[in-house]
Each structure stands twice: as C-alpha cells, then as structure tokens.
Write a structure and sequence with these properties.
About 35% of the residues lie in helices and about 15% in strands. By secondary structure, the chain is an alpha/beta fold. The protein has a single domain (about 15-375), classed as TIM Barrel (Alpha-Beta Barrel).
Amino acid sequence: MGGRTTLLLPLVCLTPWLFESACLAQEEAARPLRLEAGRKKLIAFPRPEPAAAFMRRHIAEMEKTPFDGTVFSMKYTLADGKPGDLGWDGWGKVAVTEEQLQPALDDLKATPFKRFAHNFLRFNTASKNHDWFDDFSAVLGNARLAASTAHRANKATGKFPGIKFDTEQYNDKLFTYSAQRDKATKSWDEYASQARKRGREVMEAFQEGYPDLTVFLSLGYSGAWYSAQGGKALKDCDYGLLAPFMDGMTEAAKGRTKIVDGYEIGYYLAPKTLHFGYKAMDKDQLKIVADPKKYRQVTSLGFGLWMDKNHATWNTEDVSKNHWTPDTFETLVHKALELSDEYVWVYTDKKPHWWGEDGKPVNIPAAYIEAVRKARQGLTLD
C-alpha cells in the first residue's frame, strides 16, 4: 500500500509446531466462514495497483501470474481536466460522480477475464482535514458509488466480489484520538461513539451499492489491538478509534456480506509466527470487540504479506540478500494460505512489480514467481 507505515508488534515467543497444529484444528472447527484447502485465494496488491484501462489491455499477461485476482483502481478525470483516483479521493468533501467513473466501468465490463475471479476495487480512508464530526455525505456517497461500481462490474463479468477497504492512516491520523481536531472539547467516548456511527454508515453505504459484498480490509480490529499492546488504552493508541469504527461496520453487516480482516501486520511475521496473528484475530482481540458473536459470524481472517520487505535494497541479481529469499517466501505464502480462512494478499512496493507497462513482471526474478506458484499447491483454486 502506498506510503507504507510500520505497526509495532509485541515480542512473541516461539511455540512448538505441534501446539500450532492443535490450535489450528480448534479454530477451523469454530469459524463459520473458514474455507477448506483448495478454495483459498491469493490476491496481488502491487504499488501502484493496475487501473481498469490497464486491466482491459493486459489481462492476458496478468493472468499468467500465480494469483486469483488483484486490487485495482478506478481513474477518472476531474472537472479541471486533472486525473483523479477514487481510492484516494473518496474519503473527503468532494463527491465523485457516476459519469466520471463510467469510462473505467466500461473498461472493467469489457475486460476478457478467464482466471482472475477475485478483483477488489481500492477505497482508502485517506482523510485530509476531515474530522469525524464533519459532514460525511460525500464520503458516504463515494463509498456507495465505489460499491455500486464493483457491483455493476460483477454483474457483467462475475469477477468482482467487493471492495478493498484500505484503513491504513494515510495523510491525517484518522484513527488516533490525540490527533483529532476537537480533542480539547470532545472526550474519547464522544469520538468513539462518532467513529462507531461512521463505521455503521459506511458499511450501510457499501451494502446499498452492493448487497452481500465482500469488504476486504487492510486492517480491522487487528490494527487497534496491536496498537494497544503493552497495556495501552485505546484512547492512547494510534489506531484506537479503529475499534469502535469496526464495531459500527460489524453491527451494520447483513445478509451474506463478509468482512475480511486482511491483517497487514502479517508483513512483519515469519512462517513460524504467523499463527500468533491468527490467534490474535480469532481470540485475543475479542477483548476490544463489542459483539464477539456477530464478529465471528461475519468476519473472515486473512493475511497480508510483503514480498519486497527490504524494498529499498531489493536485489534481483543476488536474491539471498533480500529479506525473503524465494524459498522462505514460498514457505511464508503456503503457511499464510494454510492458516487463513480464505484470502491472502501479497504487497509489492514500486521496484518489483507484477505487471509493467507491457503487462509483464518487472524486477521480479523468476524464482519468486515460481515460489508463489508452488506455495499455492493444494491450497488454492488451481
């Protein structure tokens, strides 16, 4: 995701793999949205993500990569002729229109998909000087439009299950109470109540645009939970307001709507520690969830992985110098798919890209492509 920030993780102690297997067996039996091996999905999230027009031109090349779909963007033209991006412009005070998105929607409908059946339209909480107590009509209208655009594309192709809702704090610290404009006059409880209201409204807007959609989060309750490690109160955490926001989203979810916690914190875990992340989402963070029963009913647990974690020093000649070698990354992807309820996403940051201008991989050694391909065996739709 653009402008990567780091979430601090608590120190964890390694436990035997036998313990992990026993815990996983219990978790598999308990989670209603957990899919069996063979139905898991692997989603690409390159920076920058492909736009609708690019997908239309290059889908044949894109589908040669070992994914089940991608995060993508909807570009459009502003009134002044400048380029716009729904993902980055949506959380603000300006309403995007259907007419502006129509050319991109036409591209999606005309894309000859074959393999990529799980493509998610990016929509960010990229707030700029927009407080929780400000007018949210444009935000809600844009959320509704994003969802309805994905819905119309899905009706035409069957390849767009929902929205990639990126809740990382870009621009303003939207979920940090100490950074709120009116913190001097409004208490934590007031802001938490308002964030919950907005979470409910955003989810309602998504569902109005796309009934029974999948809302694929970069961070759900997991962002607030890990910010609170070390005994911090939510009001003192960077992502504290994300918890009541998620309470509102969870409360409003209805029908077959599914919330995926994409667990971006997985960026910083290794194959032998990924199971701590699953346990945190499944059990530990229930302490900050208002309705644990509803949470379990509507939430699918996933993982985010960062292939070029050493992105500034990414080496295509000597892969042993990269943070993840191909062999280790293969193990990481396989373990994440094994643990996840359904979805795992792979982020890459600029230098390596799965699809360059001609639709072919750029700065990605063949060993990494093969590693991802092998990691999927027995666990995905192939």
